[in-house]
Amino acid sequence: MSTAIERATRPAAGEPLIRLRGVTKMYGSGQAALMALRGVDIDINAGEFVAIMGPSGSGKSTAMNIIGCLDTPTAGEYLFQGMHVEQLSRDQRALLRRRYLGFVFQGFNLLARTSAQENVELPLLYRGESAAARHALASRALASVGLAGWEHHTPAELSGGQQQRVAIARAIVTEPAVLLADEPTGNLDTQRSREIMELLSRLNIDHGITVLMVTHEHDMAMYAKRLVHFVDGMLDSDVGNPHPLGPDFLAALPPAATGGP
Length: 261
Ligand code: ADP
Prior knowledge:
By secondary structure, this protein is of the alpha/beta class.
């Protein structure tokens, strides 16, 4: 199975990527048992940009953790590119994670006292890339998020928006099929949030990276092409966004409207 994970090719746009069938998640047991997910069915195809919304405690993070192979369902099926993830061992799931998934978190989760360049090189180090390859790929990823020239700055020397850009560069440096973003703009002001959303939108449109993003901010969700709402551990609604905001949304506005945060 591990070689199957290594050898699987990336699906083309529109092909099935993620499929959850009857996924439940129970925490605890007996009287303390809590059903965080109560039978979730969802299909996500390659190239989609999905915003996952819903009230606190509705199961969004639990679903993201399962999709991100950080947790396993209590019952039900999770297929990633046709592979039954719920049947994989912990090591196989880690392999799948390293090979196909990139993560972005609300709190950036960068290593302090470590340069932007070294932060971005880290996943390549785990993957066994040579120093020269790590350097070239990380530099390219930083340039693609608009941080050429900032490689040697530590997180403390960067703004929140720049730190999230470094985190996004770290997430995409391995060329993942899916970017899983958990409240990526939760710690940023409006202007910086829009810049991050434009960047995610560009990665989705220009680079074909599938994006799954948890957010409670309606304005940020409007960058996604599909809006999924969770309520009480179940999918409450799942609709297309006919007019997603795009990467050139800010550029299309008159200068006065783009000035302040
Ligand atoms: P959301 O991300 O929508 O806020 P979560 O997926 O974090 O929701 O949580 C869904 C439910 O599961 C909540 O009632 C939460 O308290 C519970 N829960 C989440 N993680 C755990 C855990 N590790 N142990 C026990 N209960 C948990």
